Amino acid sequence: MGCLAFLPDEIRLYYLGWNLVDGAPFRNRIGLAVSRDGGRSFRKPYGGPVLDLNADDPQSLSYPWVMHEHGVWRMWYGSVRFRGNDKAALEARLRCADSADGINWTNRRDLPMPGGPATKVPLSRPCIVRDAAHYRMWYSRRPSGYRIDYAESADGWQWVRRNDGFGLDVAASGWDSESVEYACIFDQGGARYMLYNGNGYGRRDLVWP
User: Fold this and answer.
1) Is residue 209 one of the residues assigned to a domain?
2) Owning domain of residue 98
3) What are the residue ranges of helices labelled H in the chain?
4) Is 208 part of a structural domain of the chain?
5) pLDDT, tens digit, for every residue of 169-186?
């Protein structure tokens, strides 16, 4: 799953579709499924993806985050380029695209933000919350093991990294002692929550109290 977009008569689920291919670890695309029964079931309206590979995104797409505001759709997503067949040897950057209907996407471009394509530090899994004054984004950054970074934007396009006071790092021991990544942030009951993965992209099962 990537994210849900709520409309008056339907819920749209934008997701990552995983494909195995020769010559690369994987080759993903971004798909869409729609629910018209309040989220109890979802169906794909199309046989293929809604965001496919092209000359700017030639190898793999990932982790869509979609918002519908003032009649305009916007998608933030990851674009991956591999160096060989090694999953660790890759360049992953964050990009943005626009749409009038949430299905046909145009104006695909790199986000101008610190730690972006020029540094070759892999970035992935944007999660964005719109508050009154700012767009707030939590995303994964991999200098070695993954960490969760935080950035703010007035327009959803130009981002400023603001990790001061964020405070989430790896634990001294346990399931998230090597890496933290793939955050999902949501508001519930007057509080803001974060779900995230730990070591090995969440390879260990968690036991909830």
Assistant:
1) no
2) 3-202
3) 199-202
4) no
5) 899 999 999 999 999 999
Please work out, in degrees rounded to the nearest 5, the angle formed at the alpha carbon of residue 186 by the alpha carbons of 167 and 15: 110
On whether residue 56 sits in a domain, the answer given is: yes
Give the 3-state secondary structure of residue 55.
coil
**Average pLDDT of the residues of the chain:** 87
At residue 86, the pLDDT reads 61
Tell me whether residue 184 is in a domain: yes
The CATH number that applies at residue 56 is 2.115.10.20
Render pLDDT for 97-112 as a digit per residue (tens, 0 to 9): 999 999 999 999 998 8
47 versus 30: the higher-pLDDT residue is 30
**Is residue 30 pLDDT above 60, yes or no?**
yes
Q: Which two tokens stand for residue 152?
A: 């703010």
What letter represents residue 99's amino acid? S
Residue type, 137: M
> Domains in the chain: how many in total?
1
CA atoms within 13 A on the CB side of 52: 7
Q: Give CA–CA dist 193/191, Å, rounded.
A: 7
Which candidate, 139, 142, 129, 105, places its Cα nearest to that of 29?
105
d(CA 168, CA 188): 20
Tell me the C-alpha distance between 3 and 129, whole Å: 12
Total residue count of the chain as it appears in this document: 209
> Could you tell me how far CA 35 lies from the centroid of its own chain?
21
What average pLDDT does this structure show over 143-161? Answer: 89
Q: Of 142, 168, 21, 136, which is closest to residue 78 (Cα–Cα)? A: 142
DSSP-derived 3-state class of residue 178: coil
